[in-house]
Amino acid sequence: MAKTKTQRNPWFWIPTLYFAEGLPYVIVMTLSVIMYKRLGISNTDIALYTSWLYLPWVIKPLWSPIVDLLKTKRFWIVIMQLVVGVGLAGVAFTIPVSNFFQYTLAFFWLLAFSSATHDIAADGFYMLGLSQGDQSFFVGIRSTFYRFAMLTGQGLLVILAGALETATGLEPLEVNVTAQNIPVQEISFNPESYQKLHESGYIYFVSENEVKVPIGLVSKEQAADIKRKVDEWNISNNFYASETPVATKDAGWWTRKVSTPLKETLKEKFNKETVDRSSEVGNLAIIPIQLSTLPKAGEEVVLNFGYEKGDASIKLVHTYRYVFNETNCDKPAFAVVQLDPKLKKATQATFVGRSGNIRFSWLVVMACIAVLFVAFSLYHRFALPHPASDVANKTEGKSVLGEFFETFAAFFRKKEIVSIMLFLLLYRLAESQLVKMASPFLLDAREAGGLGLTTGDLGLVYGTAGMIALTVGGILGGIVASRKGLKHWLWWMALAINLPNLCYLLLSLFNPTSLWWISAAVVIEQFGYGFGFTAYMLFSIYVSEGKHKTAHYAITTGFMALGMMIPGMLSGWLQEIIGYQSFFVWVMICTIPIFLVLPFVKVDPKFGIKDRE
User: Fold this and answer.
1) CA distances from 558 to 58, 282, 298, 525, 602 (A)
2) I need a surface site. Which of 129, 404, 443, 605 has the fewest CB within 10 A?
3) Is residue 610 assigned to a domain?
4) Cβ neighbours of residue 34 closer than 8 Å, sequence gap 6 or more
Protein backbone atom coordinates (compact mmCIF):
# COMPACT_ATOMS: atom_id res chain seq x y z
CA MET A 1 0.00 0.00 0.00
CA ALA A 2 2.84 2.37 0.89
CA LYS A 3 4.55 1.65 -2.43
CA THR A 4 1.38 2.52 -4.30
CA LYS A 5 1.39 5.96 -2.71
CA THR A 6 5.10 6.73 -3.04
CA GLN A 7 5.52 5.42 -6.59
CA ARG A 8 3.15 6.09 -9.46
CA ASN A 9 3.61 5.54 -13.16
CA PRO A 10 5.18 8.81 -14.42
CA TRP A 11 3.01 8.70 -17.56
CA PHE A 12 -0.03 9.32 -15.34
CA TRP A 13 1.20 12.67 -14.02
CA ILE A 14 4.14 14.14 -15.94
CA PRO A 15 2.18 15.00 -19.14
CA THR A 16 -0.64 16.69 -17.22
CA LEU A 17 1.71 18.41 -14.77
CA TYR A 18 3.79 20.06 -17.48
CA PHE A 19 0.78 20.86 -19.62
CA ALA A 20 -0.60 22.62 -16.52
CA GLU A 21 2.75 24.38 -16.08
CA GLY A 22 2.86 25.78 -19.61
CA LEU A 23 -0.78 26.85 -20.01
CA PRO A 24 -0.89 29.74 -17.48
CA TYR A 25 2.34 31.14 -18.91
CA VAL A 26 1.00 31.31 -22.46
CA ILE A 27 -2.32 32.70 -21.17
CA VAL A 28 -0.59 35.54 -19.33
CA MET A 29 2.05 36.32 -21.96
CA THR A 30 0.14 35.74 -25.23
CA LEU A 31 -3.57 35.14 -24.78
CA SER A 32 -4.02 38.23 -22.60
CA VAL A 33 -2.60 40.39 -25.42
CA ILE A 34 -5.05 38.91 -27.95
CA MET A 35 -7.97 39.29 -25.54
CA TYR A 36 -7.21 42.93 -24.75
CA LYS A 37 -6.81 43.71 -28.43
CA ARG A 38 -10.22 42.19 -29.17
CA LEU A 39 -11.72 44.18 -26.32
CA GLY A 40 -10.46 47.48 -27.75
CA ILE A 41 -7.48 48.29 -25.51
CA SER A 42 -4.84 50.39 -27.27
CA ASN A 43 -1.54 48.87 -28.37
CA THR A 44 0.30 51.32 -26.12
CA ASP A 45 -1.54 50.18 -23.00
CA ILE A 46 -1.32 46.51 -23.98
CA ALA A 47 2.46 46.69 -24.48
CA LEU A 48 3.04 48.72 -21.32
CA TYR A 49 0.96 46.74 -18.85
CA THR A 50 1.23 43.17 -20.14
CA SER A 51 5.04 43.37 -20.47
CA TRP A 52 5.28 43.72 -16.70
CA LEU A 53 3.41 40.44 -16.26
CA TYR A 54 6.64 38.59 -17.14
CA LEU A 55 8.25 39.85 -13.93
CA PRO A 56 7.13 36.98 -11.62
CA TRP A 57 8.94 34.41 -13.81
CA VAL A 58 12.10 36.55 -13.79
CA ILE A 59 12.24 36.97 -10.00
CA LYS A 60 10.81 33.59 -8.96
CA PRO A 61 14.19 32.41 -7.56
CA LEU A 62 13.78 35.10 -4.88
CA TRP A 63 10.88 33.28 -3.20
CA SER A 64 11.78 29.73 -4.25
CA PRO A 65 13.18 28.99 -0.73
CA ILE A 66 9.70 29.59 0.69
CA VAL A 67 8.38 26.70 -1.43
CA ASP A 68 11.26 24.58 -0.17
CA LEU A 69 10.87 25.52 3.50
CA LEU A 70 7.11 25.41 3.98
CA LYS A 71 4.91 22.40 3.29
CA THR A 72 5.55 19.85 0.52
CA LYS A 73 6.03 20.40 -3.19
CA ARG A 74 2.94 18.28 -3.73
CA PHE A 75 0.94 20.66 -1.54
CA TRP A 76 2.18 23.70 -3.47
CA ILE A 77 1.32 22.11 -6.84
CA VAL A 78 -2.25 21.23 -5.84
CA ILE A 79 -2.89 24.59 -4.12
CA MET A 80 -1.31 26.72 -6.86
CA GLN A 81 -3.36 24.98 -9.55
CA LEU A 82 -6.43 25.84 -7.51
CA VAL A 83 -5.25 29.47 -7.17
CA VAL A 84 -4.61 29.61 -10.93
CA GLY A 85 -8.19 28.45 -11.40
CA VAL A 86 -9.39 31.20 -9.05
CA GLY A 87 -7.33 33.79 -10.95
CA LEU A 88 -8.79 32.67 -14.27
CA ALA A 89 -12.30 32.76 -12.82
CA GLY A 90 -11.57 36.29 -11.59
CA VAL A 91 -10.51 37.32 -15.10
CA ALA A 92 -13.64 35.71 -16.55
CA PHE A 93 -16.14 37.39 -14.25
CA THR A 94 -14.57 40.87 -14.36
CA ILE A 95 -14.54 41.02 -18.19
CA PRO A 96 -18.17 42.30 -18.33
CA VAL A 97 -17.64 45.15 -15.81
CA SER A 98 -16.98 48.74 -16.87
CA ASN A 99 -13.41 48.92 -15.48
CA PHE A 100 -12.54 45.47 -16.76
CA PHE A 101 -8.97 46.41 -17.81
CA GLN A 102 -7.87 47.26 -14.26
CA TYR A 103 -9.66 44.31 -12.65
CA THR A 104 -8.53 41.69 -15.16
CA LEU A 105 -4.94 42.95 -14.93
CA ALA A 106 -5.07 42.46 -11.15
CA PHE A 107 -6.21 38.86 -11.62
CA PHE A 108 -3.56 38.30 -14.30
CA TRP A 109 -0.97 39.37 -11.72
CA LEU A 110 -2.39 36.80 -9.31
CA LEU A 111 -2.27 34.26 -12.12
CA ALA A 112 1.36 35.12 -12.96
CA PHE A 113 2.64 34.84 -9.38
CA SER A 114 0.73 31.62 -8.68
CA SER A 115 1.90 30.13 -11.99
CA ALA A 116 5.56 31.03 -11.29
CA THR A 117 5.22 29.45 -7.83
CA HIS A 118 3.66 26.37 -9.43
CA ASP A 119 6.69 26.16 -11.76
CA ILE A 120 9.04 26.10 -8.77
CA ALA A 121 7.07 23.35 -7.05
CA ALA A 122 6.52 21.27 -10.21
CA ASP A 123 10.22 21.30 -11.16
CA GLY A 124 11.16 20.43 -7.59
CA PHE A 125 8.62 17.61 -7.45
CA TYR A 126 9.94 16.24 -10.76
CA MET A 127 13.30 15.70 -9.04
CA LEU A 128 11.69 14.12 -5.96
CA GLY A 129 9.13 11.91 -7.68
CA LEU A 130 11.47 10.27 -10.21
CA SER A 131 14.71 8.34 -10.07
CA GLN A 132 17.72 9.91 -11.79
CA GLY A 133 17.25 7.62 -14.77
CA ASP A 134 13.58 8.48 -15.11
CA GLN A 135 14.43 12.17 -14.82
CA SER A 136 16.68 11.78 -17.85
CA PHE A 137 14.17 9.71 -19.80
CA PHE A 138 11.21 12.03 -19.23
CA VAL A 139 13.04 15.34 -19.71
CA GLY A 140 12.05 15.37 -23.39
CA ILE A 141 8.50 14.22 -22.62
CA ARG A 142 7.91 17.05 -20.18
CA SER A 143 9.26 19.58 -22.70
CA THR A 144 6.94 18.19 -25.37
CA PHE A 145 3.82 18.60 -23.25
CA TYR A 146 4.97 22.07 -22.24
CA ARG A 147 5.10 22.93 -25.94
CA PHE A 148 1.65 21.40 -26.44
CA ALA A 149 0.42 23.87 -23.81
CA MET A 150 1.99 26.71 -25.83
CA LEU A 151 0.22 25.54 -28.98
CA THR A 152 -3.07 25.17 -27.09
CA GLY A 153 -2.90 28.70 -25.71
CA GLN A 154 -1.83 30.32 -28.97
CA GLY A 155 -4.06 28.21 -31.20
CA LEU A 156 -6.97 26.22 -29.81
CA LEU A 157 -8.10 28.77 -27.21
CA VAL A 158 -8.00 31.59 -29.77
CA ILE A 159 -10.00 29.41 -32.18
CA LEU A 160 -12.54 28.72 -29.42
CA ALA A 161 -12.93 32.44 -28.70
CA GLY A 162 -13.38 33.12 -32.41
CA ALA A 163 -15.98 30.39 -32.75
CA LEU A 164 -17.94 31.82 -29.81
CA GLU A 165 -17.77 35.30 -31.32
CA THR A 166 -19.14 33.90 -34.57
CA ALA A 167 -21.97 32.09 -32.80
CA THR A 168 -23.10 35.16 -30.82
CA GLY A 169 -22.98 37.86 -33.51
CA LEU A 170 -23.94 38.79 -37.03
CA GLU A 171 -23.00 36.54 -39.89
CA PRO A 172 -19.21 36.66 -40.29
CA LEU A 173 -17.88 38.87 -43.05
CA GLU A 174 -15.49 36.96 -45.31
CA VAL A 175 -13.24 38.69 -47.83
CA ASN A 176 -10.93 36.75 -50.15
CA VAL A 177 -7.83 38.63 -51.26
CA THR A 178 -5.95 37.26 -54.26
CA ALA A 179 -2.51 38.39 -55.36
CA GLN A 180 -2.32 38.18 -59.14
CA ASN A 181 0.31 38.75 -61.80
CA ILE A 182 -1.47 41.65 -63.45
CA PRO A 183 -0.23 45.18 -64.14
CA VAL A 184 0.11 47.44 -61.10
CA GLN A 185 -2.19 50.44 -61.23
CA GLU A 186 -2.15 53.67 -59.30
CA ILE A 187 -4.10 53.43 -56.04
CA SER A 188 -6.63 56.10 -55.21
CA PHE A 189 -8.76 56.51 -52.08
CA ASN A 190 -12.18 58.06 -52.66
CA PRO A 191 -14.39 57.07 -49.72
CA GLU A 192 -17.32 59.24 -50.87
CA SER A 193 -17.64 57.19 -54.07
CA TYR A 194 -18.72 54.06 -52.21
CA GLN A 195 -22.44 53.31 -52.12
CA LYS A 196 -24.14 54.09 -48.83
CA LEU A 197 -26.57 51.31 -48.02
CA HIS A 198 -29.92 51.92 -46.29
CA GLU A 199 -31.60 48.57 -46.63
CA SER A 200 -34.32 47.59 -44.20
CA GLY A 201 -34.78 44.43 -42.20
CA TYR A 202 -31.96 41.96 -41.68
CA ILE A 203 -28.69 43.63 -40.65
CA TYR A 204 -25.39 42.29 -41.93
CA PHE A 205 -21.95 43.46 -43.05
CA VAL A 206 -21.22 44.22 -46.68
CA SER A 207 -17.89 44.23 -48.52
CA GLU A 208 -16.36 42.99 -51.75
CA ASN A 209 -16.38 39.21 -52.06
CA GLU A 210 -13.00 39.19 -53.76
CA VAL A 211 -10.28 41.82 -53.76
CA LYS A 212 -7.57 41.51 -56.42
CA VAL A 213 -4.10 42.90 -55.71
CA PRO A 214 -1.57 43.18 -58.54
CA ILE A 215 1.77 41.67 -57.53
CA GLY A 216 4.41 44.37 -57.61
CA LEU A 217 5.92 47.29 -55.78
CA VAL A 218 4.79 50.83 -55.01
CA SER A 219 6.75 53.70 -53.55
CA LYS A 220 7.05 54.00 -49.79
CA GLU A 221 5.60 57.50 -49.97
CA GLN A 222 2.52 56.36 -51.88
CA ALA A 223 1.91 53.45 -49.51
CA ALA A 224 2.31 55.67 -46.45
CA ASP A 225 -0.07 58.23 -47.96
CA ILE A 226 -2.79 55.59 -48.55
CA LYS A 227 -2.44 54.20 -45.02
CA ARG A 228 -2.60 57.72 -43.56
CA LYS A 229 -5.72 58.66 -45.53
CA VAL A 230 -7.53 55.44 -44.57
CA ASP A 231 -6.67 55.90 -40.89
CA GLU A 232 -7.73 59.54 -40.97
CA TRP A 233 -11.10 58.61 -42.50
CA ASN A 234 -11.73 55.80 -40.00
CA ILE A 235 -10.68 57.92 -37.02
CA SER A 236 -12.62 61.03 -38.08
CA ASN A 237 -15.76 58.90 -38.42
CA ASN A 238 -15.17 57.25 -35.02
CA PHE A 239 -14.72 53.72 -36.33
CA TYR A 240 -11.71 53.51 -34.03
CA ALA A 241 -9.59 55.89 -31.98
CA SER A 242 -6.16 57.27 -32.73
CA GLU A 243 -3.28 55.90 -30.71
CA THR A 244 -0.81 58.44 -29.36
CA PRO A 245 2.75 57.30 -29.93
CA VAL A 246 5.01 57.00 -26.93
CA ALA A 247 7.43 59.93 -26.75
CA THR A 248 11.12 59.13 -27.20
CA LYS A 249 13.58 60.72 -24.80
CA ASP A 250 16.50 62.74 -26.08
CA ALA A 251 19.71 60.78 -26.49
CA GLY A 252 21.65 60.58 -23.25
CA TRP A 253 25.36 60.59 -22.44
CA TRP A 254 25.76 56.85 -23.10
CA THR A 255 24.22 57.11 -26.58
CA ARG A 256 26.21 60.21 -27.55
CA LYS A 257 29.59 59.24 -26.08
CA VAL A 258 29.68 55.44 -26.20
CA SER A 259 26.92 53.68 -28.15
CA THR A 260 26.92 55.77 -31.34
CA PRO A 261 30.73 56.03 -31.77
CA LEU A 262 31.12 52.29 -31.11
CA LYS A 263 28.33 51.53 -33.55
CA GLU A 264 29.95 53.58 -36.32
CA THR A 265 33.39 52.02 -35.72
CA LEU A 266 32.09 48.46 -35.84
CA LYS A 267 29.97 49.18 -38.89
CA GLU A 268 32.97 50.60 -40.74
CA LYS A 269 35.20 47.64 -39.82
CA PHE A 270 32.85 44.69 -40.25
CA ASN A 271 29.68 45.48 -42.19
CA LYS A 272 30.46 44.69 -45.80
CA GLU A 273 26.88 43.90 -46.73
CA THR A 274 24.83 46.19 -48.93
CA VAL A 275 21.98 47.50 -46.84
CA ASP A 276 18.60 47.57 -48.51
CA ARG A 277 17.75 51.21 -49.20
CA SER A 278 14.85 50.38 -51.45
CA SER A 279 12.28 53.13 -51.79
CA GLU A 280 9.56 50.62 -52.72
CA VAL A 281 7.29 48.31 -50.72
CA GLY A 282 4.69 45.66 -51.49
CA ASN A 283 1.53 46.70 -53.31
CA LEU A 284 -1.65 47.61 -51.40
CA ALA A 285 -5.40 47.22 -51.73
CA ILE A 286 -8.28 48.90 -49.91
CA ILE A 287 -11.22 46.88 -48.54
CA PRO A 288 -14.52 48.73 -47.83
CA ILE A 289 -16.73 47.49 -44.97
CA GLN A 290 -20.20 48.78 -44.06
CA LEU A 291 -23.47 47.78 -42.46
CA SER A 292 -26.45 46.98 -44.62
CA THR A 293 -28.80 49.11 -42.51
CA LEU A 294 -28.94 51.28 -39.44
CA PRO A 295 -28.61 49.56 -36.06
CA LYS A 296 -31.09 50.22 -33.29
CA ALA A 297 -30.84 53.54 -31.46
CA GLY A 298 -28.07 53.41 -28.86
CA GLU A 299 -26.76 50.07 -30.14
CA GLU A 300 -23.12 49.49 -31.06
CA VAL A 301 -21.90 46.77 -33.40
CA VAL A 302 -18.22 45.92 -32.96
CA LEU A 303 -16.42 44.19 -35.83
CA ASN A 304 -12.99 42.59 -35.42
CA PHE A 305 -11.47 42.15 -38.86
CA GLY A 306 -8.34 40.03 -39.21
CA TYR A 307 -6.40 37.31 -41.00
CA GLU A 308 -8.10 33.91 -41.07
CA LYS A 309 -6.24 31.55 -43.41
CA GLY A 310 -4.18 31.32 -46.58
CA ASP A 311 -0.81 32.81 -47.47
CA ALA A 312 0.54 34.99 -44.67
CA SER A 313 2.45 36.98 -47.30
CA ILE A 314 -0.80 38.90 -47.75
CA LYS A 315 -1.47 40.78 -44.54
CA LEU A 316 -3.41 43.64 -43.06
CA VAL A 317 -1.30 46.67 -42.23
CA HIS A 318 -2.72 46.25 -38.73
CA THR A 319 -5.61 44.39 -37.11
CA TYR A 320 -8.81 46.41 -37.34
CA ARG A 321 -11.46 46.78 -34.67
CA TYR A 322 -14.38 48.90 -35.86
CA VAL A 323 -17.25 50.31 -33.83
CA PHE A 324 -20.42 50.94 -35.86
CA ASN A 325 -23.26 52.96 -34.31
CA GLU A 326 -26.05 55.28 -35.39
CA THR A 327 -23.60 58.17 -35.94
CA ASN A 328 -21.35 56.49 -38.53
CA CYS A 329 -23.18 53.43 -39.88
CA ASP A 330 -24.24 55.27 -43.03
CA LYS A 331 -20.57 55.44 -44.07
CA PRO A 332 -18.13 52.68 -44.98
CA ALA A 333 -15.07 51.85 -42.92
CA PHE A 334 -11.89 50.72 -44.67
CA ALA A 335 -9.08 48.23 -44.19
CA VAL A 336 -5.74 48.08 -46.02
CA VAL A 337 -3.97 44.88 -47.06
CA GLN A 338 -0.37 44.81 -48.24
CA LEU A 339 1.70 42.21 -50.08
CA ASP A 340 5.09 41.02 -48.95
CA PRO A 341 7.53 42.87 -51.28
CA LYS A 342 9.29 39.56 -51.96
CA LEU A 343 6.10 37.85 -53.18
CA LYS A 344 6.39 36.77 -56.83
CA LYS A 345 3.74 34.07 -57.32
CA ALA A 346 -0.05 34.25 -57.41
CA THR A 347 -1.59 33.36 -54.07
CA GLN A 348 -4.63 33.93 -51.85
CA ALA A 349 -5.60 34.74 -48.26
CA THR A 350 -8.92 35.01 -46.46
CA PHE A 351 -9.79 37.72 -43.95
CA VAL A 352 -12.80 37.44 -41.67
CA GLY A 353 -14.72 39.98 -39.61
CA ARG A 354 -16.57 38.76 -36.53
CA SER A 355 -19.07 40.83 -34.64
CA GLY A 356 -20.22 38.61 -31.81
CA ASN A 357 -20.43 39.27 -28.11
CA ILE A 358 -16.69 39.55 -27.57
CA ARG A 359 -16.82 39.94 -23.80
CA PHE A 360 -19.08 36.92 -23.42
CA SER A 361 -16.81 34.87 -25.70
CA TRP A 362 -13.70 35.58 -23.65
CA LEU A 363 -15.63 35.13 -20.42
CA VAL A 364 -16.55 31.61 -21.53
CA VAL A 365 -12.97 30.82 -22.62
CA MET A 366 -11.45 31.97 -19.32
CA ALA A 367 -14.16 30.23 -17.31
CA CYS A 368 -13.52 26.96 -19.16
CA ILE A 369 -9.79 27.14 -18.42
CA ALA A 370 -10.60 27.96 -14.79
CA VAL A 371 -12.68 24.80 -14.56
CA LEU A 372 -9.85 22.87 -16.24
CA PHE A 373 -7.40 24.00 -13.55
CA VAL A 374 -9.77 23.05 -10.77
CA ALA A 375 -9.91 19.64 -12.45
CA PHE A 376 -6.09 19.56 -12.65
CA SER A 377 -5.91 20.32 -8.93
CA LEU A 378 -8.34 17.52 -8.08
CA TYR A 379 -6.67 15.08 -10.45
CA HIS A 380 -3.15 15.75 -9.16
CA ARG A 381 -4.46 15.50 -5.61
CA PHE A 382 -4.81 11.77 -6.32
CA ALA A 383 -2.47 11.12 -9.26
CA LEU A 384 0.76 12.59 -7.86
CA PRO A 385 2.87 10.14 -5.86
CA HIS A 386 3.91 10.78 -2.25
CA PRO A 387 7.73 10.64 -2.35
CA ALA A 388 9.25 10.11 1.08
CA SER A 389 11.70 12.95 0.38
CA ASP A 390 8.91 15.44 -0.32
CA VAL A 391 8.97 17.20 3.04
CA ALA A 392 9.43 20.75 4.29
CA ASN A 393 13.17 21.45 4.50
CA LYS A 394 13.15 23.78 7.49
CA THR A 395 15.89 23.03 10.02
CA GLU A 396 14.54 22.54 13.53
CA GLY A 397 15.29 25.46 15.81
CA LYS A 398 16.15 27.80 12.92
CA SER A 399 14.00 30.75 11.90
CA VAL A 400 12.34 30.86 8.51
CA LEU A 401 14.31 34.02 7.66
CA GLY A 402 17.60 32.40 8.66
CA GLU A 403 16.80 29.30 6.62
CA PHE A 404 15.77 31.52 3.70
CA PHE A 405 19.22 33.14 3.48
CA GLU A 406 20.95 29.84 4.21
CA THR A 407 19.28 28.36 1.12
CA PHE A 408 20.93 30.95 -1.13
CA ALA A 409 24.26 30.66 0.70
CA ALA A 410 24.22 26.88 0.35
CA PHE A 411 23.94 27.17 -3.43
CA PHE A 412 27.00 29.41 -3.71
CA ARG A 413 28.98 27.17 -1.33
CA LYS A 414 28.68 24.22 -3.71
CA LYS A 415 31.89 22.59 -4.87
CA GLU A 416 33.00 23.73 -8.31
CA ILE A 417 30.61 26.72 -8.07
CA VAL A 418 32.73 28.70 -10.53
CA SER A 419 32.47 26.06 -13.27
CA ILE A 420 28.77 25.60 -12.46
CA MET A 421 28.08 29.32 -12.88
CA LEU A 422 30.12 29.51 -16.08
CA PHE A 423 28.25 26.52 -17.51
CA LEU A 424 24.84 28.01 -16.67
CA LEU A 425 25.72 31.39 -18.16
CA LEU A 426 27.71 30.26 -21.23
CA TYR A 427 26.02 27.05 -22.44
CA ARG A 428 23.40 29.01 -24.39
CA LEU A 429 25.54 32.09 -25.13
CA ALA A 430 25.58 31.53 -28.90
CA GLU A 431 22.02 30.22 -29.13
CA SER A 432 20.63 33.18 -27.13
CA GLN A 433 21.86 35.53 -29.86
CA LEU A 434 21.01 33.31 -32.81
CA VAL A 435 17.39 32.79 -31.75
CA LYS A 436 16.72 36.54 -31.85
CA MET A 437 18.13 37.05 -35.34
CA ALA A 438 17.25 33.79 -37.12
CA SER A 439 13.77 34.84 -38.27
CA PRO A 440 14.80 38.41 -39.30
CA PHE A 441 17.67 36.88 -41.30
CA LEU A 442 15.33 34.52 -43.15
CA LEU A 443 12.84 37.33 -43.82
CA ASP A 444 15.15 40.20 -44.74
CA ALA A 445 15.68 40.99 -48.41
CA ARG A 446 18.74 39.55 -50.11
CA GLU A 447 20.03 43.05 -50.73
CA ALA A 448 20.17 43.45 -46.93
CA GLY A 449 22.02 40.15 -46.44
CA GLY A 450 18.93 38.03 -45.69
CA LEU A 451 17.36 35.17 -47.61
CA GLY A 452 14.16 36.95 -48.68
CA LEU A 453 11.60 34.40 -47.49
CA THR A 454 7.98 35.43 -47.39
CA THR A 455 6.10 35.34 -44.10
CA GLY A 456 4.18 32.30 -45.33
CA ASP A 457 7.38 30.42 -46.16
CA LEU A 458 8.81 31.22 -42.72
CA GLY A 459 5.69 29.88 -41.01
CA LEU A 460 5.90 26.71 -43.10
CA VAL A 461 9.57 26.12 -42.25
CA TYR A 462 9.34 26.76 -38.50
CA GLY A 463 5.76 25.65 -37.87
CA THR A 464 6.08 22.21 -39.46
CA ALA A 465 9.56 20.81 -40.09
CA GLY A 466 11.20 22.96 -37.41
CA MET A 467 8.66 22.04 -34.72
CA ILE A 468 8.90 18.33 -35.54
CA ALA A 469 12.70 18.40 -35.44
CA LEU A 470 12.69 20.28 -32.12
CA THR A 471 10.31 17.77 -30.52
CA VAL A 472 12.14 14.70 -31.86
CA GLY A 473 15.49 16.11 -30.72
CA GLY A 474 14.18 16.75 -27.20
CA ILE A 475 12.63 13.31 -26.79
CA LEU A 476 15.68 11.53 -28.26
CA GLY A 477 17.98 13.50 -25.97
CA GLY A 478 16.08 12.26 -22.92
CA ILE A 479 16.10 8.65 -24.13
CA VAL A 480 19.84 8.46 -24.84
CA ALA A 481 20.74 10.29 -21.62
CA SER A 482 18.78 7.72 -19.62
CA ARG A 483 20.89 4.93 -21.15
CA LYS A 484 24.46 6.15 -20.73
CA GLY A 485 24.09 9.13 -18.40
CA LEU A 486 24.69 12.87 -18.64
CA LYS A 487 28.48 12.64 -18.38
CA HIS A 488 28.72 10.43 -21.47
CA TRP A 489 26.54 12.75 -23.57
CA LEU A 490 27.57 16.15 -22.17
CA TRP A 491 30.13 16.99 -24.87
CA TRP A 492 27.95 15.55 -27.63
CA MET A 493 24.97 17.62 -26.50
CA ALA A 494 27.10 20.76 -26.21
CA LEU A 495 28.22 20.16 -29.79
CA ALA A 496 24.60 19.53 -30.84
CA ILE A 497 23.30 22.85 -29.50
CA ASN A 498 26.25 24.91 -30.77
CA LEU A 499 27.67 23.53 -34.01
CA PRO A 500 24.37 23.61 -35.99
CA ASN A 501 24.59 27.39 -35.67
CA LEU A 502 27.13 26.98 -38.46
CA CYS A 503 24.14 26.32 -40.76
CA TYR A 504 23.15 30.00 -40.56
CA LEU A 505 26.67 31.13 -41.36
CA LEU A 506 26.66 28.86 -44.43
CA LEU A 507 23.23 30.19 -45.44
CA SER A 508 24.54 33.77 -45.22
CA LEU A 509 27.59 32.85 -47.31
CA PHE A 510 25.90 30.84 -50.08
CA ASN A 511 22.45 32.54 -50.12
CA PRO A 512 20.49 29.49 -51.41
CA THR A 513 17.20 30.16 -53.14
CA SER A 514 15.80 26.66 -52.65
CA LEU A 515 13.38 26.39 -49.74
CA TRP A 516 14.55 22.79 -49.30
CA TRP A 517 18.10 23.83 -48.42
CA ILE A 518 16.85 26.50 -46.05
CA SER A 519 14.42 24.06 -44.42
CA ALA A 520 17.21 21.50 -44.03
CA ALA A 521 19.38 24.05 -42.21
CA VAL A 522 16.52 25.01 -39.89
CA VAL A 523 15.72 21.33 -39.19
CA ILE A 524 19.37 20.61 -38.28
CA GLU A 525 19.53 23.65 -36.00
CA GLN A 526 16.19 22.93 -34.29
CA PHE A 527 16.99 19.23 -33.82
CA GLY A 528 20.38 20.18 -32.37
CA TYR A 529 18.74 22.62 -29.98
CA GLY A 530 16.15 20.05 -28.83
CA PHE A 531 18.84 17.39 -28.34
CA GLY A 532 21.43 19.70 -26.79
CA PHE A 533 19.11 21.50 -24.39
CA THR A 534 18.59 18.15 -22.61
CA ALA A 535 22.08 18.48 -21.14
CA TYR A 536 21.31 21.91 -19.73
CA MET A 537 18.15 20.70 -18.00
CA LEU A 538 19.84 17.60 -16.60
CA PHE A 539 22.87 19.57 -15.41
CA SER A 540 20.55 22.00 -13.63
CA ILE A 541 18.90 19.02 -11.92
CA TYR A 542 22.32 17.56 -11.06
CA VAL A 543 23.74 20.69 -9.41
CA SER A 544 20.47 21.21 -7.54
CA GLU A 545 20.74 17.88 -5.73
CA GLY A 546 20.71 18.21 -1.97
CA LYS A 547 18.48 19.46 0.80
CA HIS A 548 17.21 22.56 -1.05
CA LYS A 549 16.96 21.09 -4.54
CA THR A 550 13.70 22.90 -5.37
CA ALA A 551 15.05 26.37 -4.54
CA HIS A 552 18.41 25.62 -6.12
CA TYR A 553 16.80 24.46 -9.37
CA ALA A 554 14.85 27.73 -9.48
CA ILE A 555 18.14 29.60 -9.03
CA THR A 556 19.66 27.73 -11.99
CA THR A 557 16.67 28.68 -14.15
CA GLY A 558 17.18 32.29 -13.05
CA PHE A 559 20.78 32.20 -14.26
CA MET A 560 19.57 30.59 -17.49
CA ALA A 561 17.18 33.52 -18.01
CA LEU A 562 20.01 35.96 -17.29
CA GLY A 563 22.33 34.16 -19.70
CA MET A 564 19.64 34.35 -22.39
CA MET A 565 18.41 37.89 -21.70
CA ILE A 566 21.57 40.00 -21.79
CA PRO A 567 23.16 38.56 -24.98
CA GLY A 568 19.73 38.50 -26.61
CA MET A 569 19.20 42.19 -25.83
CA LEU A 570 22.47 43.10 -27.55
CA SER A 571 22.16 40.78 -30.56
CA GLY A 572 19.89 43.00 -32.67
CA TRP A 573 22.05 46.06 -32.03
CA LEU A 574 25.20 44.14 -32.98
CA GLN A 575 23.72 42.57 -36.12
CA GLU A 576 22.50 45.91 -37.38
CA ILE A 577 26.04 47.26 -37.07
CA ILE A 578 28.13 44.44 -38.55
CA GLY A 579 25.64 42.71 -40.88
CA TYR A 580 24.43 39.11 -40.99
CA GLN A 581 27.58 37.36 -42.21
CA SER A 582 29.83 38.94 -39.60
CA PHE A 583 27.13 38.43 -36.97
CA PHE A 584 26.97 34.68 -37.62
CA VAL A 585 30.78 34.54 -37.48
CA TRP A 586 30.46 36.22 -34.06
CA VAL A 587 27.84 33.64 -33.02
CA MET A 588 30.27 30.84 -33.91
CA ILE A 589 32.99 32.57 -31.86
CA CYS A 590 30.52 32.62 -28.96
CA THR A 591 30.32 28.81 -29.10
CA ILE A 592 33.96 28.56 -27.98
CA PRO A 593 33.69 29.64 -24.29
CA ILE A 594 31.47 26.70 -23.26
CA PHE A 595 33.98 24.21 -24.68
CA LEU A 596 36.72 25.86 -22.59
CA VAL A 597 34.52 25.40 -19.51
CA LEU A 598 33.42 21.78 -20.13
CA PRO A 599 36.77 20.16 -19.09
CA PHE A 600 36.26 21.65 -15.61
CA VAL A 601 32.61 20.54 -15.27
CA LYS A 602 32.34 17.54 -12.96
CA VAL A 603 29.41 15.13 -13.35
CA ASP A 604 28.92 11.76 -11.68
CA PRO A 605 29.23 9.12 -14.45
CA LYS A 606 26.18 7.32 -13.06
CA PHE A 607 23.93 10.40 -12.99
CA GLY A 608 20.94 10.09 -15.31
CA ILE A 609 21.27 6.39 -16.09
CA LYS A 610 17.94 4.59 -15.88
CA ASP A 611 18.00 1.41 -13.81
CA ARG A 612 17.34 -1.80 -15.72
CA GLU A 613 14.77 -3.64 -13.67
Assistant:
1) 7, 43, 52, 25, 21
2) 605
3) no
4) 158, 161
